[in-house]
Amino acid sequence: TTALDGKVALVTGGSRGIGAAVALRLAEDGADVALTYQGSAELADEVVAKITAMGRSGWAVRADSADPEAVCGAVAAVADRFTRLDILVNNAGVGAVGPIEAVTCDQIDRVLAVNVRAPYLYAQAALRYLVGGGRIVNIGSCIAQRVAFPGGVLYATSKAALIGFTKGMARELGPHGVTVNLVHPGPTDTDMNPGDGDSADFQRGFTALGRYGTAAEVADAVSYLAGESARYVTGAELAVDGGFAA
Ligand code: NDP
């Protein structure tokens, strides 16, 4: 069963793409869902409206993942409003492409701040609420398991960091009854990586199934890991990548 009735989830970057699909899926499973966004206030409101239409509570919080104060403020505000927090999904992320010599120091800082430091800070701030049955699901990338082509050094660095983060957190939080897992999406049709983009056919060629995934297919895996069926799963990497890393 994946029934999440009575649980509260926080999904970072829930206004669009994979995060929006995850927010809706967890609401479908019965959870009340808070989501963060950076700029897409209207889209975030639309996701909240859909959650509300399912009979669940939804809430959107503007919080730039690159800003540590915003991150800690978001967790506190959500825990305050919903009086609990059971599931944290670290989804918000930014892409980065370019040859190693073209990447600037500012780009390195920005990508690591959003993709690595923010998940760390979110987990840190959420920990006290998650103790005794909570779940953390991090969103990595198939590129963390197999860097199949050049141009992804910075992005791969940031997503590979989540492997150590997930395993270390699983070790540390296991005794507190919290599981921590990592989902690696493959090429997934979103604004970040459109299925009709310039490099879409190229990326498709690296998958075993020969197609892009959908945000809903990634959300299915998050739903599993957030649910009761995954109670003995922690420190795991789950590829939802059409065989990209196979
Ligand atoms: P999108 O670019 O489509 O959506 C990104 C989401 O994250 C939006 O909700 C956006 O909010 C939010 N976000 C981005 N930056 C910040 C920030 N600084 N602070 C707060 N929120 C932020 O991305 P995807 O849905 O494709 O990707 C989601 C996750 O999946 C990312 O971690 C990505 O790296 C990973 N992934 C994606 C793959 C793909 O092929 N699509 C493949 C492998 C991994 P707003 O709308 O306000 O900008």
TrEMBL record:
GO MF, any single term: oxidoreductase activity
Which CDD domains does the record associate with it? Answer: SDR_c
Task: Give a yes or no for keyword Oxidoreductase in this entry.
Answer: yes
Q: Which UniProt keywords apply?
A: Oxidoreductase
Pfam assignment, any one: adh_short_C2
What Gene3D superfamilies would the database entry show? Answer: NAD(P)-binding Rossmann-like Domain
User: InterPro entries annotated for this entry?
Assistant: NAD(P)-bd_dom_sf, SDR_fam
By sequence similarity, the record places it as follows: Belongs to the short-chain dehydrogenases/reductases (SDR) family.
**Protein name, UniProt field:** NAD(P)-dependent dehydrogenase (Short-subunit alcohol dehydrogenase family)
Give the species this sequence originates from: Streptomyces zagrosensis
